[in-house]
Write a structure and sequence with these properties.
- The protein is built from 8 helices and 7 strands.
- It is α/β, with parallel strands linked by helices and about 220 residues long.
- β1, α2 and β2 form a beta-alpha-beta unit.
- A 7-stranded mixed beta sheet has the order 3-2-1-4-5-7-6, with helices on both faces.
- α1 packs across α2 and α7 runs antiparallel to α8.
- It folds into 2 domains: about 150 residues, 3-Layer(aba) Sandwich (Rossmann fold); about 45 residues.
- The radius of gyration is 19 Å and the shape is globular.
- Bound molecules: S-adenosylmethionine (SAM).
- S-adenosylmethionine binds next to β2 and α4.
Length: about 220
């Protein structure tokens, strides 16, 4: 089975040997990868029966010992203290809804991959008593992805860090720089679509664009 770059990047943030609850496992590809290559014990969870059937089939193919459970988020799950939980490939609202369950308190490490609304995600998790230990931005099959790893603890962040990512803003590898270049283009496009009369809205976007410019200038070539 071929594992996508996205699955491998998710796995790279999971501490080896940890007990992992994968909420919204779908075909259980991440669980299979983690069991094979990262020495994790995984619980694959999904709300959808067909997804779970496919997860069973895949796990059977590899003859692996991965527990599979049907649940709406954490509802039917026993969450041991200090668990690692992965939630990937869902919208931020759904993810935050899943994490509104009181059992979230027992989760020590959360690895989340959503496709937008990163500020809302970071702000809510910070309010819940988590801080950001790592972030990855990468391109897979022509789509930019961001994965954020949270752990229990308190750190103060600047507003711009919750928008662009406190860890990403300190990374200067090629892929992160290219991510910020694509974010620069995205925000410039957003700005060009805001009529001049919306002064404050434009100001907020210009502020983000300037911060990305500063980041890219720190790398070397100017925009
Ligand atoms: C797009 S797939 C992502 C699969 C996998 N996590 C990945 O990143 O490749 C989203 C999965 O989340 C499941 N899902 C959606 N809402 C859920 C919920 N409330 N609880 C558990 N699973 C859910 C869906 O059934 C689907 O299998």
């Amino acid at each position: 089975m071929a594992f996508s770059k996205r699955i491998k990047k998710l796995a790279s943030l999971v501490d080896s040997n940890a007990y992992v609850i994968d909420v919204g496992c779908d075909h259980a590809l991440l669980d299979i990868y983690l069991t094979l290559y990262n020495n994790n014990k995984c619980l694959a969870v999904d709300i959808n029966e067909n997804a779970l059937k496919s997860a069973y089939e895949n796990i059977k193919k590899y003859k692996l010992n991965i527990e599979v459970k049907q649940s709406n988020g954490l509802d039917n799950i026993d969450v041991p203290n200090n668990s690692v939980c992965v939630i990937a490939g869902m919208g931020t609202n759904l993810i935050l809804d899943i994490l509104s369950n009181e059992k979230t308190e027992k989760i020590n490490t959360l690895i989340i991959q959503t496709n937008k609304d990163y500020k809302a995600l970071r702000d809510t998790m910070i309010k819940k008593g988590y801080f950001i230990v790592d972030e990855l931005a990468f391109l897979d099959k022509k789509i930019w992805y961001v994965i954020i790893k949270f752990k229990k603890g308190h750190v103060k962040y600047k507003r711009i860090e919750t928008i662009l990512g406190p860890v990403l803003l300190k990374k200067y590898d090629n892929e992160t720089v290219n991510y910020f270049k694509s974010e620069y283009d995205k925000y410039c496009k957003v700005l060009s679509n805001i009529p001049k009369k919306y002064v404050f809205k434009r100001f907020k976007i210009k502020y983000i664009i300037n911060k990305i410019k500063i980041y890219i200038k720190n790398v070397g070539p100017s925009l």
